Structures are given as structure tokens and as C-alpha cells.
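Subject: mismatched residue count in predicted assembly?

I count 181 residues in my input, but I want to confirm that the predicted structure covers every chain. Input:
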Amino acid sequence: MLKLVLPTPQYLDSVITAIAEYKAHPSPFDIHCINKMIDTQKDNFKTYFQDIENKRQGIDLPEGHVPNTTLWLIENEKYIGSFDIRHKLNDYLIKNGGHIAYQIIPSERKKGYVKAGLKLTLDYARKNLNIEKALLTCNYDNTASYKAMISVMQEWGGEEISPSFIDGHQEHRVWINTQPK
Ligand SMILES: CC(C)(COP(=O)(O)OP(=O)(O)OC[C@H]1O[C@@H](n2cnc3c(N)ncnc32)[C@H](O)[C@@H]1OP(=O)(O)O)[C@@H](O)C(=O)NCCC(=O)NCCS
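Triage response: the counts match. Full output below for your records.
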């Protein structure tokens, strides 16, 4: 069964295997929480878990950052990918980043996982963070991410708004309801 969990040492073996995969197949669109995971040494996960928890609780946030919940997508005890939910938007996130970011391990891509995981994440955002509509953004060249967000938007409802121009590139922007139609 596919589920979302808060990061926990229970899945660490699988996560360490995933980190090796992420490192071997970097993407220009790798998200922040994955880079953070990749930088974590095998024996230093205690700090990683504490950092994730602090961000969730809004403790010691860097200037301009908002609280963020990181969730792991798990199937049959195996780590499949990560989903980040920013609890609220600021001026930067409205243009680049939005509420939700995601990444699937390379060997599990093109199997529908991001769409399934995004629906679980939207549901989590509504039930736990009172987010009724989530903004998603992606680089204009990120076809897979764009297709995924449009597909879920068409199923659950929402709207695409005008792209933003930021840091020399264009970002698609899509609002998605956090519960099915
Ligand atoms: C983007 C990403 C999360 C997609 O995950 P995924 O599990 O492979 O996506 P899905 O299998 O659910 O497919 C989503 C859609 O994209 C399409 N797709 C998947 N990979 C694709 C590719 N490389 N090129 C074009 N389309 C692609 C699928 O066919 C599907 O389209 P459909 O809705 O018309 O059927 C994954 O490629 C990834 O982790 N990339 C690196 C990090 C990243 O880009 N994160 C998003 C930042 S905004």
C-alpha cells in the first residue's frame, strides 16, 4: 500500500539506497530537501531528522523561510520519493516553489508515483495544515512535473495561472484543490 510518512529511522536502509540513486542520476530539477538528504552522511541522520522536525515546527528558520513539512512516499516498506509542503506562501514562493515540491527516485519514475503521491500530499495539506488550494510551480522545461500537476488539476479541480518570470527563467503555476471534485 502506498503511504506518506513523516521521516523516520524505520525506513533508513531504503533511504540510504535511494540517496545512492539520486547521487548517480542528478537532475537539474532536484529539489531542496533531496539535496539536503544527499549531503547527509550515513552516521549523521540524527541531525537530519532534527533539522526536518525544526522546519516543520518553524524553529530556527533561515531568514525569509516559512515552516515546511517533509513527507516520504513509501510502498511496501520501500522509500519511493519525497514531498515537501510549505505551510504558507510568501512573495518568493508565489513565483517559484509554491506550496508543494516533489521528487521520485529515478528507478521508480514514469510509473504514476508522483501523481498518486501528490494526491496523498494534497489530502495531508488539507487535513493537517488547513490548505484548501495548493499552488504548484515548475520550470517551463520540466515536462514530467508539468504533466503531473495538470493531470491532477484536471481530476481534482483548480486553475492554471500566468507563468512567473524569476531568476532568468519561466515557471508554470497551477492551483489545485486539496480534495477531489
Ligand atoms: C517530475 C517527477 C517527480 C515525475 O515523477 P514520475 O513519478 O515519473 O511521474 P508520473 O509517472 O506520475 O508521470 C507524470 C506525467 O509525466 C509524464 N512523464 C513522466 N516522465 C516524463 C518524461 N521524462 N518526459 C515527459 N513526460 C514524462 C507521464 O507520462 C505522466 O503524464 P500523463 O499524466 O500524461 O500520463 C520525476 O521525474 C522527478 O523526480 N524529477 C526530478 C525532480 C523534479 O523535477 N521535481 C519536480 C520539481 S517542480
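The CA atoms of residues 138 and 171 lie 5 Å apart. Marking this ticket as 'not a bug'.
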